[in-house]
Amino acid sequence: MLPLASVHAAEHDPLILTGPADVATLAPVFEYVIDDDWRLTPADFAGPNPVQTKPMPAPVPDFGYTPARIWLRLDVVNGVSGASDWRFFVHANFTQKIAIYKLGADGAAWTLMNLTEDSPFSARPIDNPQMVAPFSLAPGEAATLLVSYYSQGSSRISMTIETVDSFAAQARVAAAKNYVFYGMMLVMIALAIVALVSLRQPVFAAYAGYLVSILAYIAHGDGTAFQYVWSNFPRFNSNASTVAGSSVMIFGALFAISFLQTKRYHPVMHRILQGVIVAVLLVDIVLWPTNPQLLKRLLVLMISASVLTFLAAGVVAARTRFREVRFYLYAWFASLIPAMLLTARFAFGLETTFITPYDATRIALAIDALMMGLAIFDSYNHQRQTAMEETVAHAERNLALGQRLAVLEQSYAQVSANAREREESVKDAVHDLRQPMHALRLSLRQMFSAGKDGTGDAGQVEAALAYMEDLVAERLADHPGHAAPASGGDTASDASGPGLHGVLRSVADMFAPEAAEKGLDLKLVLAAPDAGVAAYPLMRVVANLVSNAIKYTRQGRVVIGLRREGGGHRIEIHDTGPGLSGEEFDRALKRSERLERDLDAADGSGLGLSVVKEIAAEQRWRLSACDHRRTGATIRLAVPAA
What we know:
The protein is an alpha+beta fold. The protein is about 55% helix and about 15% strand. It has three domains: about 1-170, Immunoglobulin-like; about 200-385, no CATH class; about 455-640, Histidine kinase-like ATPase, C-terminal domain (Heat Shock Protein 90), CATH 3.30.565.
């Protein structure tokens, strides 16, 4: 197999591929050159005078945070007789610029992969969350692989060479890890959102934001987010780590503030946590447009500093309430592991060998998120138990006082009720007297005016006087030693008293002068036979309704109607006023409540409809309004058969 190997490859001690080559295998063979001016091309590494390269000093390509372009050179020979398809695997989801070339023995160059910060995910030669360049190398063939890359973040990137089978096996393992981690995180996010909607506590909002930020950070780190979420937005993907990392710190601080209630219990720590949020935002705002590479470098250090601050806040709280914050401490102890691994890897070039950094980060962050959820649950459970204990103790302390105060409270309630009843009764009487007195005044004015004999107004005067006499008699009957109403009878229907027709005619006669004075047409339409009724309560109800209709109707007419409804009757008061929607009707039924639109239209006390509502409830009449009229208002009173 070796006769086909080029002399050039032999001079540089090429790597003989006998299978997959890991980082440790490639490290002794890698050579590099730093292209500060970005002038080198693949042709500069071929020919009789190639660019001078240096052996790589570290087991992993790591040249810190540098604005230069890095070139890596690797001479290989295929030492496997049955394999010609290989994969150059760059264990990174994204860099701003990366290109991989294959130089043949004759110096010809083939581009295996060439990606920039504007390349969408579809530009990758292999559909994989991380960057993979396929290349062919026949058995015994020698070639030189060139890797050219630049990153705004750390230049530390792990690279391996895989066979088709080994690469497929790694892809299956990575997919299984993603399935477990993403599934767990999505379940916890869903539970946090359900708790937020159900309990409406800010701690769940901070917890959900923290979980989403972690998920976004890991999904960006392993390339899944670029592959499935924002595959057509490579420039955002270039800075997604900044967004996700900043969100982790901000929501972590908000979670610490809301969970530990630092504003209430630890004011100094509260200001420190607020300072973390402000510092992260300021660094993002200042460095994002000017120096994104420095921004990413600082955020790596700030993540560890933030986690230590959150942990310190938990330690401060644990001094007085350890049981309540114990899971919070466990959570940030777990989160400290990936933060330190991240800082050690990208800031100091240290990396674990027994577990990959992203695997350690996934495990630690999953434990961290779970512990945070347990912390919230444990805190609420502790608060519930404390509240129950305090409630029982409070109940025991108040039991004796409650027994002693029971009689006094009952007496006070009775006195207050009596006083309110008398006060409301006086208000209702004054309100009800105002309407017939006004009608009586108008009738008398017409009777004694010039050219009037007064005979036509006798019924109006009689109706108003009778209504006033009944009202006064009823109010006096509320007190011992006074008689019952004189003409209206009690609240039950009275066969000797006026029926429905008589009551409605009396109300129409009573308010005819007032309607005429406003230029309104007041009509009475009796479309149903007469029947017995509680005359006095009905007169009060209809009088209040007609009075309101006349008061708020500027022009047009007011109609008092009587219809049959089932076995009883329905009284309707129609007007051509401003109308009354269902919501306005419900509001007008409240005592002393007036609609804003009516404040300037007419004087009133807001008692009319509330009096009507109370009387209708006492008589078991049904009061309603028709809210689908285009103009005017209709109020209905259903009076069942006596």
